[in-house]
Amino acid sequence: MSEYPGNVESPEVAVFFVGNKLMHDDGAACALYEMIAGRFDAAPSVRLYDVGCLTLDMLPYVDECDVLITVDAADAEGGEPGAIYRYAPDDLARTQQALASLHDLRLADLFETAALLGYRAQGVCFGIQVENRSPSSMSIGLTPSVRAALPHLFEALSAELAGLGVPFVERATGRCVAGPLPEGYWEGSQR
Question: pTM of this prediction?
Answer without folding.
Answer: 0.83
